[in-house]
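Prompt: May I have another protein with tokenized structure?
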Amino acid sequence: MFMPVGTKGCLKGLAVQELVTDPALSCPIILGNTYHLAIQPGTELVDEMGGLHAFQAQPYNLLTDSGGFQMVSLVKLSKITEEGVSFQNPFQKHTNADDVSSMLLLRPEDSIRHQNNIGANIIMALDDVVSSVMEDEARFVTATHRTLRWYDRCVAAHAKADTQNLFPIVQGGLDIALGGKREQCLAGFRHRAVTQGYCIPGYAIGGLAGGESKDDFWRVVDHCCRALPDDKPRYLMGVGYPLDLVVCTALGCDLYDCVYPTRTARFGVALVPGRHPGTLRLKAHECASDTGPIQDGCGCQACREGISRARLHLLLKTNNPLAAELVTQHNIAYMMTLVRDMRNSILRNEFAAFASNFVQQQFPGERQGGDECPAWVKNALEAAGVGLLK
């Protein structure tokens, strides 16, 4: 399942009902950002209005992150201690880096309180997030064990365990050695489930998609998936490139989120089947006189109504907001179709053929016995027992 990212609980330019009522989208769950919702409009107000579902008349499911990712994305505005993380309000100007007058303190207890107020169906434990490309080994050690300690505090603070599913997040950097930091974090969660009776409905894999090599990326995903239980969903955070979804599904992941499909749509880039990277730049000169739709057979509004690439090109060039809405709809439809097709192929026991065909569509030279496909893709699929069919 792919979850579009709605930072404040909704997607830019789309009515919330479209995600459910438009059969081409049929999006059962989206992601909201706890940090941004806590700043504006404030989660106490959201709670008073009956939770985010009621506040924004949202009929679909919600997942909220813990706010931990902002430790990386807003690193210059944050300070991390054992107590929690303090953020400067990014919407206010600061002349002094030590100014605490408008700081938001996000402790594990605060993160859970905010997420209880928001009322999402799936909520995340606050984790200590470190950029995967950082070279400070001691910082990774601290983050790994702090993530476990913060998880204990999140469990203790969780007031709505009967209605909200709390996922812990596996950290540990790129260290997948026997007894390494990823294994220590995984073992810590297993120990808590067995000895303390923690109910863990699902697990997230964090700390990736931050600039590490693709070879390191897939090996960490593979390591975590092999160690996590088969009967619990595995959520790979921050991953949204179609090729990555296919490869990581082969490795054992179930849930994904990323801003990529919606953000790239606002720049006039549509996701389409075909040669890697599988994108169509609608602002390109070639689209100015192209009478075809974005994608033949697509059920999104633009494609089913026959809105041409040339028309979209003009809308984008004139900064008409309708263009971003239509391309956003298309990209979400593309992602929803991709994950549905993957799930159906798994149910039919045909995923290996699906993955092979998808990769060969992106790298057509493979069909002729070439070596076009990146080595990391081949190695990951081989590790998952999914070879490329010639």
